[in-house]
Amino acid sequence: MDLTTSDNSTLAAYVTKLVMDELAKYEQPSRKVKVGVSNRHIHLDRTAMDVLFGKDSELRPKKKLGQPGQFAAEETVTLRGSRGELKRVRVLGPLRAQTQVEICVTDGFAVGVKPPVRESGQLEGTPGIEVIGPKGSVVLEEGVIVALRHIHMHTDDAKRFGVKNGQIVKVKVGGDRGGVLDNVVIRVSPKYALEMHIDVDEANGLGIATGDYVEVLDSNCEA
Amino acid sequence: MDLTTSDNSTLAAYVTKLVMDELAKYEQPSRKVKVGVSNRHIHLDRTAMDVLFGKDSELRPKKKLGQPGQFAAEETVTLRGSRGELKRVRVLGPLRAQTQVEICVTDGFAVGVKPPVRESGQLEGTPGIEVIGPKGSVVLEEGVIVALRHIHMHTDDAKRFGVKNGQIVKVKVGGDRGGVLDNVVIRVSPKYALEMHIDVDEANGLGIATGDYVEVLDSNCEA
C-alpha cells in the first residue's frame, strides 16, 4: 500500500487495522464459563433401576444435558424422608455404578435429611433415603449429597485456563447478589464440555440462572 | 521491679507481659459480624392488621429478634399466589407504615411470584400477593420483595468499622461454600444492634446458619 497516494478513508482503515492487530496481541483469552443449575435429581445403578422401573428396563432420554452423553430421562421417582416427600425427582442417565441422590439444603429441610456438601461419588457416611418408583421402592443406606460446586472442563479448556483436574479455584459472579466463590473444584476430562454446575440454593442465593456466565479468577493474579 | 534480683519465673512473666502489651498495639479491632437468617415473613400496616386479625387487634410477641424492639409475633398468615400457597408465614412486629412481604426466590417459584431484590421499604413496582388471615384477606397490589442483604449497625459500630449509612461493603464468608459477597448495604441507627441479615436461599447456598460470623472487608485494604 502506498500511503502517499491513498485517500483519507483508506488510510484511516489501514491505520485502524494496524492498531487493532497490535492491541489483539495483548488481549487475554476469555476466562468465562457458562453456568448450568442442577435441580434435584438421582443417578441410578442397575439394581435400583430393576427394582424401581422393572427388570432390564432402560431409561428413555428426554433432554440432552450440557455434558456429552448425559441426559435427563423421562423417568422420575419420589424421595421419602422422615419429614416429607419430594415428588417427580428427575432421573439422569445413563446408569451409573452407584445410586446417588443430589438435592439442595432447602430440599433436605423439606424431607428431613441433612446431606453434606460432597463431590460426586464420595458417598461414605452420607445419609440415605427411600426412593419410590412405579414398580417398587428401595431404601438407600447412603447416597444423598449436596453437590460441591464444580466446573467441567475439556482437556483443551484446562490447558487454556492453566488448571489441573482436582484444582480448587475462585469464581467471580456478577449481579446484585454476586461476589467471589471459594472452593470451586475443576474436573477435567476429554469427555467433558466447559460448564459450571451449581445447585438451586446457590443459584437463588447468588442470583444466577442457567446460561449466565461466571469468570474463573486467575490464581496467579490474585491479591 | 528490680530485674537483677527477680527469680526466673517472675522475670519470664514480666517480659511476656511487656511483649504482649506491645503486640496488642498492632492488633486490629474485630470486623466480625453475627448473621441472622431471615425466613419468609410479613410486616403489616394497621389497615391489613384490622382486616386479617380483626379491628384494633394487636400483635402478640412470641420471640424477640436481634434488632431492639422487633419481635416475631404469635400471628401467622397464608400467602397465596398463582401457583400455590405458603402457609404459617410469620408476622413480625411492631406494625409498620406499609405492609411488606419478604420471601426468598425459592418461595417465589413455589407460589408463582417473582419479586426483585430490594431494600426494605422500596416497594415501587414490586409484585403483589394475596394475604389470608383468620378474620379476612387482603390482595396487595405491591409489596413482595426478596430482601437485599444488609448489616444493621449501631452508630458506635459504624464508627468502629469506619462506614456510613447506605455504604456498600464486601463481606467474607468462611466454610465449604464461602467466598466474598459484594453489594452488602450498611444500615446505621442508634436503634440498631450489630447483625447481618441474609435470607434462606443465601444461607443455604453459602452454607451459613444463624449465629455464624462473617467479616466485613476493609475497603481501604482491598486489592
Brief synopsis:
Chain A has about 220 residues and is α/β, with parallel strands linked by helices. Chain A contains 5 helices and 15 strands.
Please characterize this protein's 3D structure.
2 copies of one chain form a homodimer. Chain A has 223 residues and is an alpha/beta fold. The first copy, chain A, is 21% helix and 35% strand. Chain A is built from 5 helices and 15 strands. In chain A, the strands form 2 sheets. In chain A, strands 2, 3, 4, 5, 6, 7, 8, 9 and 10 form a 9-stranded mixed β-sheet that branches. A 6-stranded mixed beta barrel of chain A has the order 1-14-11-13-12-15. The first copy, chain A, is elongated. At the A-B interface, strand 13 and helix 5 of A face strand 13 and helix 5 of B.
